[in-house]
Structure formats: structure tokens, C-alpha cells
Amino acid sequence: MIGALTLAAGLAALALAAWCGFAFSRDQPTKDWHFIGMAVVTVLALLQLVIGVVRLAGGDKPGQGTAIFVAYLLGAAAAVPAAGFMSLAERTRWGSATAAAGAVILAVLEVRLYDIWGG
Amino acid sequence: MPEPTTQDEAQDGAQEERTGRGRGAGAGFDLGQGPGRLLVWLYGVFTVAAASRSIVQMIVDFDRAPLAYVLSAAAALVYAFITYSLVRGGEQARSAALVCCAVELAGVVVVGTWTLVEPSAFPDATVWSDYGMDYLFIPVILPVTAMAWLRRAER
Hints:
The complex is a heterodimer of chains A (119) and B (155).
Chain A: H1 2-25, H2 32-57, H3 66-88, H4 93-118
Helix pairs in contact in A: 1-2, 1-4, 2-3, 3-4
Chain B: H1 7-19, H2 35-61, H3 66-88, H4 91-117, H5 138-154
Helix pairs in contact in B: 2-3, 2-5, 3-4, 4-5
């Protein structure tokens, strides 16, 4: 369950990064549709946070430690919304670059989450 | 933006578009706008990453690799200060951030070399180990980019 969700969130984050990167290359700021995309990715990350906490409460132990796992879950849930807010106030192509960077960071966090849970 | 009327204005417009600092008086000191926005975001992320990493490691098992954990904490402080300077803006913050970026670059190079030459001193990795390889080499790229941006903002 965690594995499938991690994969889904990671791929969605990469797609979002590519989409916002495309807006950056076209010299465009983030638009409503980008924010809807960010919301979808954020919902996946929040779902992951909830399921992760439920699994921990149910007695499961992540391979590399609970504290690190929770820290990464929180980081994953916060990354895209934080980048989204920053791009909201930056109405140039650099707002798109910021959103894309946030999505890339989420993808990296998902890889690490996968390692922490399994390893 | 109004339609540019002359060649010069058209070029100015393009310049503003690229750097995003053509807004309002003193916009040259708005370090957190345009490309600076991306830098604020990345420095913010690295502040959180380095700080949480060193805090967790120090709490969990400080004695395993004290040197590595202290270096991570130092990196977090440098990142935090640069983030703050970029957000604050102004000439003073700009020169302070420039100095810190130089310190950051020196830190990455020194710690990166140190970890390669004497791995036994580092039972656990720092943010700057192997020139930031664990972090996609962003720790090396970031100070160079930031210094280029800060020097540009001077004009």
C-alpha cells in the first residue's frame, strides 16, 4: 500500500515538475490549471501522511526509524503547497521554476520515503 | 506592461521579463524576486533539510559521528542566514549574503575534499559530504548561482 502510493505520488510529482518546467520554458507564470495540478499532488502526499501515521499507530516499524519517516512524511506533504504559495506571489516564469523545483523535491522525498520504509 | 515604443524600451522590457526586477523603485534590491524567488525556495528547503537532519542525528546518536553532525548544523545556519538575507533584501543583506555564499562554497569544497581524503573521520555523512552528492550536487551549484544573482542585483 505504502509502496504503490509512494510510486503514484512520485510519478505525479515528476509530471507536475515537467508541466511547470514547460511553463517556465514558455516564459509563462503558473496558472489556475497548474494550481489544480499542485492540489492533486498535495492530496496524494496528504493521503500518504495519513496512511503512514495510521500504519505507525498500528504497530508497523519503518526500516530506518520512525522519527525520520515522520519527518520525511511531513516534508513531502509541505513541499508542493509551500512552493505553490511562493509561485503565487511571483507572477513571472520564475514562479513556474519555483513550483517545478518544489515538485522535483517531492519526487526525491518519495524515493527517500521508499528507502526509509523498506530499508 | 505597456507596449514598448522604441528599440531600447523593448530591450529593457525583455530584461525586466528575464530578471523580474523591473518592478517599482529600488527593485534592484529586491533579492527575493524573479530568479531570486527560486533561490529563496531552494535555500529554504536546504535550511530545513540540513537543520532537521542534524537535529535528528544529534538527538538519536550524537557520539556516532559528532564532527559530521556539527558540520551539518553549521551548514544549516549558513543556509538559514542566506535565506533570511534574500528575503530581507537591500544592500547590506546583499553583501552579507555574498560573503555567506563564499563561506558556503568554501565549506562544500573543503568538507567534500575532506570526506574523500579521510573517510574514516566521517562514520556518517554530512550535507556537504562528497561535494553534496547525496543532494544531487545542489550544495555546489547553489552558492555559485546565488553569487551570480547577487552580483547581478548590484547594478
